[in-house]
Design goal:
310 residues, alpha/beta, Spore Coat Polysaccharide Biosynthesis Protein SpsA, Chain A, 2 domains, nine-stranded mixed β-sheet, 11 helices, 18% strand
């Protein structure tokens, strides 16, 4: 694919306190052979040397690709930063990045090719490998090995709805979306700490999400991953936010997926009750979860009979 024929991809990178990792992230964009790309990166109020690392890298490589770099003096949060990154992007396609992870060669071209071949889809996700803080590989598949997901579900619209609702298994920045998709899903919901589930639920509700079974990024596990915290109070806050997302987005789905998402909200509430050591409430939520899950599964098409749509 020549530069003239290739649509421009804007790689959006929200950066925060990742001075150890951000240069590897930026290098991976430069190293990918996809010919038409730009980097749009925001340092969202980092207190370490992340901003200096970005500025130094940009000064070295601006002659090789377009880099737009902005620094916030105060942290505004991931969703607000993503919305600003998207607004600043010039590309037809937006590749979501993360300053502690890095892209894998060939991922950009494969995802662009998928969206060009599937004009009804607004976004496509891939898989990831999982690495430690030093870059050593821990898992070949973030979806399967880290999250225990059945990747076969992601091959159909019905399966994607089921998977996004009940076994959200996206580790790392694995999505490419059409910039026009943001007109469909109203961008990222500002104020959320863990914003990706909310965003992809809205895409799945419209059958607008596709999947390619290849690793497109390296997802780095280290001590500061937001979604992997072991701090009980923080876990409760994150779970409560996820419960709110589930209840808010349930009405976007038809049955039986609406009931499946409501079941998931009770499962999340059961986790909160467990962390709070409220055994009676835990039992009530588990009972509600199982009841709604059973009701939804009765009406779900068997996985083997799902029909893939393009």
């Amino acid at each position: 694919m020549t530069t003239a024929a290739a649509p421009l991809v804007s790689v959006l990178i929200p950066a925060y306190n990742h001075e150890r990792f951000v240069e590897r992230c930026l290098d991976s964009v430069l190293e990918d052979t996809y010919p038409a790309k730009e980097i749009v990166i925001i340092d969202d109020g980092s207190s370490d040397r992340t901003g200096e690392r970005i500025a130094e890298w940009a000064a070295r490589y601006r002659h090789q690709l377009r880099v737009e770099y902005v620094r916030h003096e105060e942290n505004r949060g991931i969703a607000a930063t993503l919305n600003e990154l998207a607004a600043r992007a010039h590309g037809e396609f937006l590749r979501l990045g993360a300053s502690d992870d890095y892209l894998l060669p060939g991922g950009l071209a494969a995802q662009v090719n998928y969206l060009q071949a599937h004009p009804r889809k607004r976004a496509v996700i891939g898989d990831s490998i999982v690495v430690d803080q030093y870059g050593n590989k821990l898992h070949d598949s973030g979806m399967r090995d880290l999250h225990g997901a059945d990747k076969g579900l992601y091959r159909t619209d019905e399966g994607i709805r089921r998977a996004v609702i009940s076994q959200w298994a996206i580790g790392g920045p694995v999505a490419l979306l059409r910039k026009s998709a943001l007109e469909t899903v109203d961008r990222w919901t500002e104020g959320l700490r863990i914003d990706d589930w909310d965003f992809f639920l809205r895409l799945a509700a419209r059958d607008a999400l596709g999947f390619i079974d290849m690793p497109v990024c390296a997802y780095r596990l280290h001590g500061n991953n937001v979604s992997k915290t072991r701090h009980t109070a923080t876990r409760i806050v994150n779970l409560t936010e996820s419960w709110q997302v589930a209840r808010r987005r349930a009405e976007m789905f038809d049955e039986p997926y609406r009931s499946l998402l409501k079941a998931q909200s009770h499962y999340i509430s059961a986790k909160v009750a467990f962390l709070q050591k409220r055994s009676i409430l835990l039992g009530c939520h588990l009972l509600a979860y199982l009841s709604l899950l059973l009701a939804s599964k009765v009406r779900l098409p068997p996985a083997g009979r799902l029909v893939e749509k393009t």
